[in-house]
Amino acid sequence: MKLYICIDDTDNYDSIGTGELLETMMQEAALRGLGKCGFTVRYQLLIHEDIPYTSHNSSMCCEAETEDRAALTAFCADYLRENAAEGSDPGLCVLTADDRLDYAPLIAFGKRAQTEVLTKAQAYAAAEAFGSEVHLSEHGGTGGGVIGALAGAALRAGKEEGRIKGKLQPPAGKPEWTTAEFAAFYGVERFADEDGNDLTGPLTLTFVYPTKLIYQRGMVTAVLLHENGRWLLKPKLKKKK
After folding, report:
1. Per-residue pLDDT tens for 113-126?
2. Rounded distance between C-alpha atoms, residue 241 and residue 239, angstroms
3. Where in the chain do CATH 3.30.70.2200 domains reside?
4. Backbone phi, then psi, for 87, in 5-degree steps?
5. Distance (Å, whole) CA 15 – CA 188
6. Which SS3 state, helix, strand or coil, does residue 54 take?
7. How would you label 212-221 residue by residue, b for 16+ Cβ within 10 Å and e otherwise?
8. Are the C-beta atoms of 221 and 215 separated by less than 8 Å?
9. 91, 97 in Cβ contact below 8 A?
C-alpha cells in the first residue's frame, strides 16, 4: 500500500526543521520494518499574521510504502508526540496514495491553504468526508499543524508543484552531462525551462552550481536555463541575510 505522509508545525527556532524530522521519522520506521519512504516535497502555505509559523509556513510530505498502514500510522503519531519541538503545534496526515480516488475536494483545500487562513475545524471536516482514506491527528500544543499536514498531503496527491527537500552539489571534475546521464544518476524524470515547458530530446547541460529539484506535474523535475548558447542547471541561490 502506498501512502502520502505529511507533517507540519513540528519545529521551533532551535530545533531541526520539519523536513528533517520527517526524514528521521521515516528512517526509523524503515529500520523497524514498518515501511520505506521516497523523497520529501516542501509545500509553501500562506504567510499571514494570523497563522503561527517558525520561518516559512511550509509542510513536508513524502510517499511511503507499507504492508501495515495502522502500525506505520501509530508509529508516526508516537514519534511526533515524543520528538516534535517544545512549543510547536504538530499535525500528522496519512493519506491513501491512489490515482483512482477522486481527491478533488481535498486538493481544493490544499490550494486554499496557500491563499487563505483556514481553521482546524475546516481541516477535520475536509478529512472526514473521505473516511478511512485519511488519517488526521494532532500531537501537541494547539494541534494547528493538522491544517498544513492535510494541505500538504492533498497537494501531493494532486501532483501540485513543490520543492524537493535537499540540494544537489556539482561533483568535481564533471561539469558537462547529457540529460540521459543526469536523469539516470539523480533520478530525474523530467527536464523543464523556467516557464515550466518540457525540454525533450538529447541535450547537454552544465552542472557547476548547487541546484534544487522540484516536483512538477507529478514528476521529479530539473529546471534548466539557456544562457550564452548552453543549458545550465538553475542555481540554488543563497538567501540574503
Report:
1. 999 999 999 999 99
2. 6
3. 2-163
4. 85, 0
5. 31
6. coil
7. bbbbbeeebb
8. yes
9. no
- Check the CA dihedral 11-12-15-16 and report its sign: positive
pTM comes to 0.91
Q: Contact, 161 vs 216, CB < 8 A?
A: yes
Q: Is 81 exposed, middle or buried (0-12, 13-18, 19+ CB in 10 A)?
A: middle
- The answer to whether residues 170 and 208 touch, using CB atoms and an 8 Å cutoff, is yes
Nearby residues of 4 by Cβ (< 8 Å), 6 or more positions away: 61, 62, 63, 64, 93, 94, 95, 96, 97, 153, 156, 157
Encoded amino acid at 4, one letter? Y
Note whether 231 and 205 are within 8 A (CB): yes
- Tens of pLDDT, residues 63-112: 999 999 999 999 999 999 999 988 889 999 999 999 999 999 999 999 99
Cell for 123?
Answer: 481541516
Sign of CA dihedral 190, 45, 16, 37: negative
Domain 2-163 carries which CATH code?
3.30.70.2200
